[in-house]
Amino acid sequence: MNPKNLDTYCQNTWCPGCPNFAILESVKRAISELIEKGIPRENFVFTCGIGCHAKIFDYLNLNSFYGLHGRCLATAQGIKLANPNLKVMAFVGDGDTYNEGISHLIHAAKRNTNITVLVHDNRNFALTVSQFTATSPKGFKGSSTPNGSIEESLNPLELVLSSGATFIARGYAWKIDHLKNLILKAIEHKGFSFLEILQPCITFFDNRQFYEERIYELKSPLSKEEAKIKISEWDYSDGEKSKIPIGVFYKVEKPTFEDLVLKN
Ligand code: SF4
């Protein structure tokens, strides 16, 4: 199917050049391929939180639910439990899910609920003009931290690995084909799939050069021990020196929450 068939009539209000455009394109290509493989278009449904990322609700022509700030994973889990045949995706932002909704993230991973979480991580609350988030690096200067954030950055991949996620990957917004393949793998995984997308915010935190000088592609698969090492290789606190691995870090098969609940 032509990815353009997933377009909508809505006017796009992302900043010109925002990497959200690249994420949207990767998502459309991945879903078009899955539709061609035989998954009915009406079986895809997505939720989103609040933030620049969430405007994807207007630009992606699929069944969707625009939820509350940070609560998108609760909605996604409810949808999946009500109809396990659906392919349920949750588009979230870093502030949205690592600040407002972090308990939902931990528990969804712990349950191994069969949904796909795609994090547009631009490392600030961009929609409300650049307050710092859990993944803003130490020293980040935004509207709530004009002298620089004093906090260390959270490593979300470490968090979801220890919480029980059964698929963990990281992509980069401007590597569109690579990202499309990660999205395909994440959606096809049976269980909680987590995809962190490095997404520069060209208006408030333009770290394109930083990423592009450091990113390299992982050779998968990795054992859990290898995944732990790779995941802790970079967390922005020692960012000047580190290389940044992207790709699939971890994948394992386990019973899903829906399988266990619905067989009882
Ligand atoms: Fe993209 Fe940043 Fe503009 Fe939001 S503020 S649309 S994340 S460039």
Description:
The protein has 264 residues and is of the alpha/beta class. It has a single domain, classed as Rossmann fold. Helices cover 35% and strands 17% of the residues. An eight-stranded mixed sheet has the order 2-1-3-4-6-5-8-7, with helices on both faces. It is globular. The mean pLDDT is 95. Bound molecules: iron/sulfur cluster. Residues 14-15, 18, 20, 52, 122, 126, 201-204 line the site of iron/sulfur cluster. Iron/sulfur cluster is lined by residues 14-15, 18, 20, 52, 122, 126, 201-204.
Topology:
Layout (H helix, E strand, L loop, with lengths): L19 H17 L7 E5 L7 H4 L3 E4 L5 H11 L4 E7 H7 L1 H10 L4 E6 L34 H8 L3 E6 L3 H13 L4 E6 L9 H7 E3 L6 H8 L12 E8 L5 H7 L1
Parallel strand pairs: 1-2, 1-3, 3-4, 4-6, 5-6, 7-8
Antiparallel strand pairs: 5-8
Iron/sulfur cluster binds next to loops.
Descriptive tags:
264 residues, alpha/beta, Rossmann fold, 8-stranded mixed sheet, 17% strand, globular
Q: Give the overall shape.
A: globular
Beta-strand portion reads 15-25%
Overall mean pLDDT? 95
Low-confidence runs (pLDDT<50, min 5 residues)? none
Number of domains: 1
Small molecules in complex: iron/sulfur cluster
By CATH's scheme, which homologous superfamily applies? Thiamin diphosphate (ThDP)-binding fold, Pyr/PP domains
- DSSP, total strands: 8
State the major sheet.
8 strands, mixed
How big is the Rg? Answer: 17 Å
Give me the side-by-side strand order of the main sheet. 2-1-3-4-6-5-8-7
Instruction: Please tally the helical runs, counting DSSP H or I stretches of 4 or more residues.
Output: 10
CATH topology: Rossmann fold
Structural class by helix and strand composition: alpha/beta
Helix and strand pattern = HEHEHEHHEHEHEHEHEH
Helicity range of the residues? 25-40%
